[in-house]
Design brief:
TIM Barrel; 8-stranded parallel beta barrel; EC 5.1.3.9; Aldolase_TIM; RibuloseP-bd_barrel; binds N-acetylmannosamine-6-phosphate; 40% helix; alpha/beta; Putative N-acetylmannosamine-6-phosphate 2-epimerase; 229 residues; single chain; 10 helices; globular
């Protein structure tokens, strides 16, 4: 039986509300405002980065929160909730689901994906979403006990396809190969693409930049218009 929280995401839109320090919308509680707007739109969940934003959103929004903490370590390329330290902080901030790097790459400080998943399963009731970049990684993450998969990292590991569009093929193949829900995430630019992901087998769809990164949204218009100059 699937957890109620997973069932509540089925067929819906999860809005990723994230800004890095270099972006104009970083800080000042602005991600909370995007999350409130997403809730009002009928979205079924929020994806948020940093304990601070998760806490802030938790106070104002009732939707399930997929929490992560992007942090770089010098000994690994893994940066999405890379170690047990970030996992604990994300859970303490109120995330219902912890999103973490679920690739097969070496992790910082000698930890393994199994260590991090075990930490969550042993010490909390939070669910685990593995952000993966290939079918093989998705299958391995399911075997380790992850509750959900997301195609987040396709295009962001050296060995996955580098493309402008979402990785529809990964969504399709992975959905056939695993029993746990597969979320489509990464470079989804339109409602039509989101719908296509669901038709290809995605359990739900995560959209970030096309909704919550104004600079990225404006640039698409600027670039398109420039072609007519
Ligand atoms: C690769 C990576 O670090 N992705 C991050 C993961 O949380 C976010 O920067 C993305 O915005 C998110 O995955 C949603 O994707 P998009 O913004 O393309 O709709």
């Amino acid at each position: 039986m699937r957890q109620p929280i997973i069932l509540s995401l089925k067929g819906g839109l999860i809005v990723s509300c994230q800004a890095t320090e270099e972006e104009e919308f970083y800080g000042e509680g602005l991600m909370k405002r995007f999350a409130i707007a997403a809730e009002r739109s009928g979205a079924v969940g929020i994806r948020a980065n940093t304990p601070q934003d998760i806490r802030d959103i938790r106070e104002h929004v009732k939707l399930p929160i997929i929490g992560l903490w992007k942090r770089e370590y010098s000994d690994s390329e893994v940066y999405i909730t890379p170690t047990i330290t970030e996992v604990r902080a994300v859970i303490a901030a109120g995330a219902d689901i912890v999103a973490l790097d679920g690739t097969l790459r070496n992790r910082p400080q000698g930890e393994t994906l199994a260590d991090v998943v075990n930490e969550i399963k042993t010490n909390s009731s939070a669910l685990v979403m593995a952000d993966i970049s290939t079918v093989e990684e998705g299958i391995a993450a399911e075997q380790l006990g992850c509750d959900l998969l997301s195609t987040t990292l396709s295009g962001y590991t050296s060995y996955s396809p580098q493309q402008k569009d979402p990785d529809f093929q990964l969504v399709t193949e992975l959905s056939k190969r695993v029993k746990i829900p597969v979320l489509a995430e990464g470079r989804i630019q339109s409602p039509e693409q989101a719908l296509h992901c669901l038709q290809q087998g995605a359990y739900a769809v995560v959209v970030g930049g096309a909704i919550t990164r104004p600079h990225q949204i404006a640039k698409r218009y600027v670039d398109m218009i420039a072609t007519a100059r």
